[in-house]
Design brief:
heterotrimer, A mainly alpha (226), B mainly alpha (231), C alpha/beta (238), A: 226 residues, mainly alpha, 0% strand, globular, B: 6 helices
């Protein structure tokens, strides 16, 4: 295995282990997602609006906010005891460092998304079985994109005073294109629309992922090396 | 240090002068728009806000592009002046975005009956506004100058890369969701007087941009040479 | 003519500045294996900046750092291998046990037999029976020992220490001094940034005083500490 990849996986594994021990972010994000779903359920009039029409909005709003909670975790643990210095000191290429953090974030966010999706099916009594493979594909594709931006921004804001407040302010404009695409695609998937109607959004999403994953990997060194 | 302060004062004077010229130009535009330009047939008097609305969008976009470019240059050249310029441009840009975003609804309500539409220009400017706010909020939260410049530069470049994606998203949204046909004021069939007023206004707003940025840059330089870290 | 060997650590013309503000204004440094340089200076003189530049945690605005002849750049990671850093922060994760922390560090440095290296480091630090504890449950002295174990795990030839004696009681300080002495016997090079000349005086072969981002004094370590301290006061006042 190339050394750069081994180091990235080592760092990702460490992040996951730390989070599974501490559990704080996973639990907050999960509880938050459940809360949002409950509010959506009690706020709507079930006779007027079907759950399927509302599903894309509910799901993607929930995913977005839960993701922001998850991102804050990525670098706050590194602040304790100046642990991040230990990572920067070691012969770890900055690209591997970014990739490791990215992978850990990706796993967290998709875990919370899966939980939220399960809760959605439960609370709203919606049958997603036909759309599920496509839905999972859209979730992965969109998450890949905004995790890229979330990872680098959380590296920046961790050094500011109000990191948790700063992150959404910076991040949300960047999350709109993938969220919009994801919501549109979800809506079409649930409506059983043909693939041709989704092609444009899929292209947008893929392009966004490629561009921003590359850009963020390259820019990471500038952010973490003083 | 006093050299910087002198230069700052010089820039501020220059900036004030340019802004004054711009403001005179703005007065000219008002006169042109109200007195010497025909009233648009379908929209009536409300349409005249357009001569402020469209150019302020242009200035906002100009501000933003320059934030992006000087951010990119800063990362290569590491010249603090580029960072100072980017910050000044961002502040000026936020002001112009607000002008555009407020004149939009003022124009829209009497004509289209709604305060807001998600047309391409308004949506884009709204995002520029959010990007500016994020950029400036981040800057305000970082005390160390070098770190602030580095982080701002990254955000600036990323913002610049984001703009085409916003465009694309709005375009996809609109083509797949037919919207009620909105008036397109930049249609080529503008009578010559309107075109003249519009172009004059674009020029005036560009001058205003230059004036404000020069002035703001001078203020930033003065604040820094006074040892104030929050320039 | 003997072949000249690249010194263990070499810094030339180090500048760290932003615009008009300069934390370091042109600092040179050369360290051979077995030498220990103690860096003193008032607050704000640039000591921590210098150390972070030498560790590769900061990039200089001007000048260069070379470790064993290799330039320290964020692109090239090999130059970082011989470096070990010990600061007053432990760089340990509070949610991982001491052993897990060390295993992680072993992985970062690509050590070939990580478990053996970790077991050995734990034994040398006297922490073998605390290996399954979390750092936050250890006393400050033990945390420092764990931090030392982490810093020395990959057998660095160049040890950089930033105020390592901070917050340590007498016995912990002695223990640290012993560990460092053991390192010098192994022909490592050390740079110690400290406020208290006395703590590291015996270990030092060279001493430097940074004032206002530049060397005010730089020489081999004199024998008389009191005399030196007087000169230090004068240099700082100047």
């Amino acid at each position: 295995m190339p050394e750069a990849l081994r180091l990235a996986l080592l760092i990702a594994a460490k992040d996951l282990r730390v989070e599974l021990r501490a559990k704080t972010s996973l639990v907050s994000a999960g509880v938050f997602a459940a809360l949002v779903l409950v509010i959506f359920e009690f706020a709507r009039d079930p006779t007027a609006i079907g759950a399927t029409e509302l599903a894309p909005s509910i799901l993607w709003v929930t995913f977005a906010f839960a993701a922001v909670i998850a991102f804050n975790r990525a670098f706050t643990t590194e602040k304790e005891n100046a642990a991040f210095d230990g990572l920067l000191l070691a012969p770890v290429p900055r690209g591997s460092l970014y990739l490791g953090k990215y992978l850990a974030n990706f796993v967290f966010v998709t875990a919370v998304e899966s939980l939220a999706l399960g809760l959605f099916v439960l609370f709203f009594n919606v049958d997603l079985s036909d759309a599920l493979p496509g839905l999972v594909g859209v979730m992965l594709l969109a998450t890949a994109g905004f995790v890229a931006v979330g990872t680098i921004f959380s590296a920046m804001v961790v050094r500011t005073r109000f990191a948790e407040l700063m992150l959404p302010v910076l991040l949300l404009p960047f999350m709109v294109p993938p969220l919009m695409a994801a919501a549109q695609l979800t809506s079409r998937l649930l409506g059983g629309r043909p693939l041709s109607e989704m092609a444009g959004w899929l292209r947008l999403l893929t392009l966004y992922d490629v561009v921003f994953i590359t850009l963020c990997t390259l820019a990471f060194s500038t952010v973490v090396d003083e | 240090m006093t050299l910087d302060l002198d230069r700052a004062r010089h820039l501020m004077r220059r900036g004030k002068l340019i802004t004054l010229v711009g403001l005179c130009g703005l007065a000219v535009v008002y006169v042109l728009a109200l007195q010497f330009t025909p009233i648009e047939v379908r929209q009536g008097l409300a349409q005249k806000i357009f001569y402020i609305h469209a150019p302020s969008a242009w200035s906002a976009l100009l501000s933003f592009s320059l934030v992006g470019f000087s951010s990119a240059l800063y990362l290569f050249l590491k010249d603090p002046r580029l960072d100072r310029f980017a910050a000044s441009s961002a502040e000026v840009g936020v002001a112009f975005s607000v002008v555009m975003l407020t004149t939009g609804p003022i124009w829209g309500k009497p004509i289209w009956g709604t305060w807001w539409t998600w047309d391409a220009r308004l949506t884009l400017t709204l995002f520029l506004f959010f990007l500016f706010v994020g950029y400036l909020t981040l800057r305000a939260a970082i005390p160390d100058q070098a770190e602030r410049a580095r982080f701002s530069a990254v955000v600036g470049i990323m913002g610049m890369v984001l703009v085409p994606f916003i465009h694309l998203s709005v375009y996809l949204f609109r083509t797949l969701h037919p919207q009620p046909i909105v008036l397109k004021p930049s249609a080529p069939s503008l009578p010559p007087e309107m075109l003249r007023t519009l172009l004059t206004s674009f020029g005036v707003f560009t001058i205003l941009y230059l004036g404000f940025v020069t002035l703001r840059y001078g203020i930033a330089l003065a604040a820094e040479s006074h040892g104030d870290d929050d320039a | 003519m003997p072949l000249t060997e690249a010194p263990l650590l070499e810094a030339t013309g180090l500048v760290r500045a932003y615009g008009r503000r300069r934390a370091l204004r042109g600092v040179d440094l050369s360290l051979a294996a077995g030498e220990t340089l103690v860096v003193l200076g008032p607050n704000g003189a640039g000591k921590t900046t210098l150390l972070r530049l030498l560790a590769g945690l900061m990039r200089p605005t001007g000048g260069e750092v070379r470790v064993m002849g290799l330039p320290l750049k964020s692109g090239d990671t090999n130059a970082r291998r011989p470096i070990g850093l010990l600061s007053h922060q432990s760089m340990l994760y509070d949610d991982l046990t001491v052993a897990e922390n060390l295993l992680f560090a072993a992985g970062l440095y690509g050590l070939l037999s990580p478990r053996e290296a970790v077991a050995r480091a734990l034994e040398e630090a006297g922490l073998s029976d605390r290996a399954a504890d979390l750092p936050r449950n250890l006393s400050r002295g033990m945390q420092q020992r764990a931090a030392i174990a982490r810093a020395l795990l990959h057998r660095p030839s160049l040890l950089l220490l930033d105020e390592p004696f901070t917050g340590l009681d007498a016995s912990a300080s002695d223990r640290l001094r012993e560990s460092l002495r053991a390192e010098t016997i192994k022909r490592s090079g050390m740079v110690v940034v400290t406020h208290h000349a006395a703590e590291a005086w015996e270990l030092a072969t060279h001493v430097g005083v940074l004032v206002g981002g530049r060397w005010a004094i730089r020489e081999t370590r004199p024998d008389n500490l009191d005399h030196f301290l007087r000169r230090y006061q004068e240099a700082v006042r100047a």
